Amino acid sequence: MSAQAASAACPRAQAQRDAAVVLLGTGQVGGAFLQLLRTRAGENLRLVGAANSRHQTIRAAALAERRLRERLNIAGDARDDDALLDALHASSAATKVVIDATASEELAARHPEWLARGCHVVTANKALAGGDLAGWRELQAARVHGGEYGDSATVGVGLPALATLRRLHACGDRVMRIEGVFSGSLSHLFNDYDGTRPFSSLLREARAAGYTEPDPRCDLSGEDVARKLLILARTAGFPLERAQIEVESLVPGSLRNVMLHEFLERLDELDDSLAARYAAARARGHVLRHLAHFDADGRAKVGLCEVPPAHPAAHLQGADNLFAFTTGRYTKRPLVIQGAGAGPEVTAQALLGDILALR
Ligand SMILES: NC(=O)c1ccc[n+]([C@@H]2O[C@H](COP(=O)([O-])OP(=O)(O)OC[C@H]3O[C@@H](n4cnc5c(N)ncnc54)[C@H](OP(=O)(O)O)[C@@H]3O)[C@@H](O)[C@H]2O)c1
Description:
The chain is an alpha/beta fold. The protein folds into 2 domains: 3-159 and 345-356, NAD(P)-binding Rossmann-like Domain (Rossmann fold), CATH 3.40.50; 161-340, Dihydrodipicolinate Reductase, domain 2. 41% of the residues lie in helices and 20% in strands. It has helices spanning 3-9, 11-17, 28-37, 60-63, 68-74, 81-90, 105-108, 111-116, 133-145, 161-170, 184-192, 199-208, 217-220, 223-235, 260-265, 271-283, 344-356, and strands at 19-24, 45-51, 55-57, 77-78, 95-100, 120-123, 149-150, 175-181, 245-247, 287-295, 300-307, 320-327, 335-340. The strands form 2 sheets. A 7-stranded mixed β-sheet has the order 4-3-2-1-5-6-7, with helices on both faces. The protein has a 6-stranded mixed β-sheet with strand order 9-11-10-8-12-13. Helix 9 links the parallel strand 6 and strand 7 (149-150). Helix 1 (3-9) crosses helix 2, helix 3 packs across helix 17 and helix 11 crosses helix 12 (199-208). The structure holds NADP nicotinamide-adenine-dinucleotide phosphate (NAP).
């Protein structure tokens, strides 16, 4: 069969052979995505634009450079989203994809517009879907008539949590409870914390190894996990708002508004209360885990919990994530998804997987 005949017989293969992509964000995840583009798995994608927050380029020679990420850090054209979108539309590719590998709320707010303009959006940025309900609804409306929205990287860094919920929902299975450990960094910290060393010393090590955000308060506040819980609950059909989630911050009030360097100097102020909670849990034969919980009756909570040895989260290792879905058909025991819950490589792979799955 000729190549033309083959692609007529298989439009999906045609789309995969001919996809143009613009990459927003060349940090850890964007950098790992650029590496993937150079592998066989990315050979059918054509990069037509790339940007960080300060610079961008649509020049083919610059985009082909191995040190594109480093170059954009020091030079490039001035930032202009519309010029990037124009480059995407000017390409002859059948499939046009904007990849959002940033945490920018401003960019996330433009996802519906890009979908409406016929582009697909593939994102690790959860600011829109995990933001206020109006943004979520705008996104759903744009998804009906516009391009497709790849969001596997927003929750569980590519573990099939959202895909599974969508499937259950589409099959009419009613989700009754969503529970789990949704933060790789908090998973790592509490899987390792056994009371023998101060929590602050583990936290310093985790930060140095890149497991936490540069400002660990972003992890410890629970807000990132709350966003993931919002996305999961909404995907399961519940119009949950942030105000309905009880979020326990592990950052003492006295450290919430100080500069980062002062917070890092005073990290040991976290130690006593966490040591007391660990000892109390241990006395009952339990361990501490950072859990998120949503019930169909609307109860939603994020924070540190004592869990018994039989709880699925009790045996987590490393930075694993865990998602447990109790539904009308998974009633006695939940459907459980578990695996690596952090890291730029698996996140970049989730982005690529969403692109390759585009119809
Ligand atoms: N790292 C992980 O393991 C992981 C896992 C799951 C999900 N995620 C999510 O993936 C996203 C990226 O994370 P990351 O770790 O790669 O962050 P990062 O290393 O801080 O990189 C963020 C990138 O976004 C760029 N950026 C910010 N605003 C921009 C804008 N308006 N236009 C274009 N670029 C902009 C930054 O540019 P500058 O360099 O100029 O600041 C930087 O290149 C976040 O939403 C994060 O929550 C990350």
